[in-house]
Write a structure and sequence with these properties.
The chain contains 10 helices and 10 strands. It is of the alpha/beta class.
Length: about 375
């Protein structure tokens, strides 16, 4: 695995540095300072002050063990501009395209659908029986960069043997909610002119896994036919609070800097004052001044009855574990055919990794692709 992938493959949701909290250490913790035993204290507010010594599991692949053994400093990283972060992510995704295309040969065309830029990924060996089917991808990247239009589309196209249209939706902070929803809905409506809804799937990872159910709720509001299936891979559906896992994990799991999230404060009564604090600065910028309980922004507050079969995927050290499983439970409570796959120990969106020696990444992409194929062939 080259150095670019080694250092950037997990910069999926945010592609940016976290904001430095007052509580964060000025310098990284050293080996001498690191806790050497488990501790647990619950204060009067119910806040847990804990340390845990957690060995790397031995029942995961050697590559996964190596990834988990790679340390990241817990000091707050330096701030960089959004333009610099976008430049770094563009370089990462260019390398990702090459790496994934070695495993899954394809043809990629840059185009526009309904005026929205898209990347159309056609897998090598596309069978005639799949030419009337399409997968609609909404990429990750914290809504302010594109980390996934290649890493989410190339392997899924290759393993499913179905064409993928990756939506290059408008991004925050220049274009906050609902710009990304509107762009994706526009592309979907145009695809309905060529494809039956039962031959379309919508899916995404990280920010794209937030956007996927948002788009589905909006389609339902508009009275448009829903797609055959949804893929919600490490996301969330509730902008009113970040969930437990946000307090536990950095992008690379236990390793790295974590800012303790604060409780959000909202005013929903028409005053025009809405403060969103999810613990994710990029998501706060995406939400903007929208009511955090808006049913499109936060689908967990929407009527989810009638949603198509949906696959949720997350992992045990995923920052968005709580968000993913909470939204999955909301789908179940609405009577939706919702399946959940949780990988032990691995960090956020590990399936972006194109290393052929990382079997969990390859397996996860196969599970996603196989689910889509089954739903489209009903």
């Amino acid at each position: 695995m080259n150095s670019m992938f080694r250092h950037t493959v997990l910069l999926l949701l945010f592609a940016s540095t976290a904001l430095a909290a007052q509580q964060s250490p000025e310098t990284a913790t050293t080996a001498a300072e690191a806790p050497s035993r488990d501790t647990s204290y619950i204060d009067n507010n119910g806040t847990a002050h804990v340390t845990r010594l957690i060995p790397v599991p031995r029942d995961i692949s050697p590559k996964a063990q190596l990834i988990l053994s790679r340390g990241e400093p817990d000091e707050a990283p330096p701030e960089v501009s959004l333009s610099v972060r976008r430049g770094r992510m563009d370089a990462y995704t260019a390398a990702a395209r090459v790496a994934w295309s070695r495993l899954c040969p394809n043809q990629i065309v840059e185009d526009k659908i309904a005026g929205v830029p898209v990347r159309i990924v056609t897998p090598e060996g596309l069978p005639e029986a799949n030419r009337d089917k399409v997968l609609l991808n909404v990429h990750g990247g914290g809504f302010n960069t594109d980390s996934g239009s290649y890493t989410e589309s190339i392997p899924i196209a290759g393993y499913s043997k179905i064409k993928v249209v990756a939506v290059l939706y408008r991004m925050a902070p220049e274009h906050p909610f609902p710009a990304a929803v509107d762009d994706t809905v526009a592309v979907y409506k145009e695809l309905l002119k060529t494809y039956k809804p039962e031959h379309i799937v919508i899916y995404g990872t990280s920010a794209g896994a937030i956007l996927t159910p948002e788009v589905a709720v909006r389609l339902k509001q508009l009275g448009l036919p829903l797609p055959a299936a949804l893929g919600i891979f490490s996301g969330m559906g509730d902008f009113t609070h970040p969930g437990d896992s946000r307090s536990l994990f950095a992008l690379e799991g236990w390793s790295g800097h974590v800012d303790p999230p604060t409780f959000p404060r909202h005013n929903y009564q028409g005053t025009g004052i809405v403060e969103v604090n999810t613990g994710y600065p990029e998501l706060d910028n995406y939400a903007g001044q929208t009511d955090p309980k808006d049913p499109v922004l936060s689908p967990i507050y929407a009527d989810l009855h009638g949603m198509p079969p949906s696959l949720f995927v997350t992992s045990g050290r995923d920052q968005m574990f709580s968000g993913t499983v909470n939204l999955h439970r909301a789908f179940l409570n609405a009577g939706v055919d919702a399946r959940l796959v949780v990988y032990d120990a691995l960090p956020h969106a590990f399936w972006y990794n194109p290393d052929p020696d990382f079997p969990e990444s390859i397996e996860a992409n196969h599970i996603m692709a196989d689910f889509f194929v089954k739903q489209l062939n009903k």
